[in-house]
Amino acid sequence: MVPALFRAALMAAAANLLSGAPGHAQSLALGEARGYPASIFQEVDRTARQQSSLNEADESAEAVPAHLRRQIVAYPGREAAGTVVIDTANTYLYYVLGGGRAIRYGIGVGREGFTWSGMRSIDRKTEWPDWHPPAEMIARQPYLPRFMAGGPGNPLGARAMYLGGTLYRIHGTNQPSSIGTKVSSGCIRLVNEDAIDLFNRVQVGTKVVVLPDGPRRAQAGTAADMAADMAYARAPQPAATYERMSRDRGTLHYGSSAARLY
């Protein structure tokens, strides 16, 4: 009895393999006949891996403190709807909705000696950006790669919004634990989920106001505090200031776009 059952199972398995093989070959033949290049399947696989990484990152983002998670809040500033305001001191980024409200995101900002302020605009948007550490950064951290292609392991994360006239970006990160800290070389980082959300809201040309660093305040502070910070951010800085910062701190604030700072 047992041998008979065993033979029957083998025969069934062989039948399944035989019936599946032609179908598989046919599907491949159809794909080749229709001229689908292998790169399409590679792209599908890459996208699937990136989405899997995003799902994992989103789970990790849950560890971000509640006050640093994306939420709609009251906003005392007078900027037009669609403006991005970066509150460096409090590690918040505001996307102004108008009507006294804004979407607030928790961010990571420049470490001591690498913060900056001013008014810029977004001049380019990129999904899964490549990373080119500049020579200044490699001199400080020789172990860094000279180039890293965009993808789940890239420190720039899922999205990047480049700030015109600077070497800085607003970008995602694969290190959610860095949100709320001051650790970057001047770029503004968000968890990937938030970077994608902001990326979908802003346009090329969107105004970005980076407020100066200073004592941490409750949320964005009072309207008077915000107005004072805005006035400071709008004040033009002499070129010598940025040249000195570049020389003393090993980073460029406004200069050649050939280098990329993280």
Give a short synopsis of this structure.
The protein is of the alpha/beta class and 262 residues long. It has six helices and eleven strands.
Chain-wise SSE layout:
Elements: H1 2-33, H2 38-61, E1 71-74, E2 84-87, E3 92-98, E4 101-106, E5 109-110, E6 118-127, H3 135-140, E7 159-163, E8 169-171, E9 182-184, E10 188-189, H4 192-201, E11 207-210, H5 223-234, H6 239-249
Parallel strand pairs: 2-11, 5-9, 8-10
Antiparallel strand pairs: 1-4, 2-3, 3-4, 6-7, 6-11, 7-8
Taking the sheet with the most strands, its summary is: 9 strands, mixed
* Rg calc: 25 Å
CATH class bucket = Mainly Beta
Span between termini: 70 Å
Instruction: Report the portion of residues in β strands.
Output: 15-25%
Strand ordering within the main sheet: 1-4-3-2-11-6-7-8-10
Structural commentary:
This protein is of the alpha/beta class and 262 residues long. The protein has one domain: L,D-transpeptidase catalytic domain-like, CATH 2.40.440.10. It contains 6 helices and 11 strands. The strands form 2 sheets. It has a 9-stranded mixed β-sheet with strand order 1-4-3-2-11-6-7-8-10. Strands 5-9 form a two-stranded parallel ribbon. Strand 7 and strand 8 form a beta hairpin. The longest helix is centred in the first third of the chain and has 32 residues. The C terminus is likely disordered.
